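Entry 14. Ran structure prediction on the chain below.
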Amino acid sequence: MRVLLLAAALAMAMSAPAHARPGGLVVPTDWLARRIADRDLVILQVGDRAGYEAGHIPGARLVTLADLAAPMGGEALTLEMLPPQALRARLAALGVSDRSRIVVVPTREGIQSATRVVFTLDAAGLGRRTVLLGAPTAAWAAEGRPLSKDAPAIAPGRLSPLRMRPLVVDADFVRRHASAPGYVVVDARAPDFYAGTRVGGSPQRPHKSGHIAGAKSVPFASVTTQDLKLAAPAEIAAKFKAAGVKRGDTVIAYCHVGQQATATLFAARTLGLKTLLYDGSFEEWSRLNGAVERAK
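Output, structure tokens:
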């Protein structure tokens, strides 16, 4: 059965457009090592300053999720996509230009932080020039490759106005497509949140219990590994098949705030599936009194 699933996953990936194939989304450490001196290469290490200063891939620039997200405060939702002009300015400040090839590096914050940055770049129209490093900084070091504690000097990039791709959807779109043919709404949170036995949010503003009515469960942790890598192709294919996702379907994913869902969507992309993010996620759905149900 495992062999059959692997064959199905690979066949699906090979039938997808070139930019959607696994080889076009993830690169190994030796690929990066051979190109690390490329002047057009921009390496973005996703994490916090303490982790970055403890050692990073030479030339990597530190980026936090807050750097590429709309400001929080008041009634604002968590981790929302920036408007195009603001996002362009932030990316240019990181040295991203029209010539850049971008490598996003996961660190101890989790693969879901790195995939959120990858998703943001894809939504900004830079997806064809963006890849995820298939191993975290710790794995790079474990292979005997050098780490640096020096922050590189960053020259602002010359970046053209962004051509945003329609990869982010709102609550109304989710409602209209929750049971529409060709669409599958997927909950990327841990199973206990999906089941309603545990509630997310904060004590001051808890989320509803359960999941969006009609959503299927594909937890981000089921398609990634604890060492910050993607799961095997067969395992990824099996999880989406169990959720009723078929070839040609569009996966609409959500989580608590739009972070974990990007890891599930990234895994879906390696199968050649079309993907959309409900960025407001369960945080917004709870505020809007959206329909929910609990696992039976």
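The CA atoms of residues 156 and 205 lie 39 Å apart. Will compare against last week's run tomorrow.
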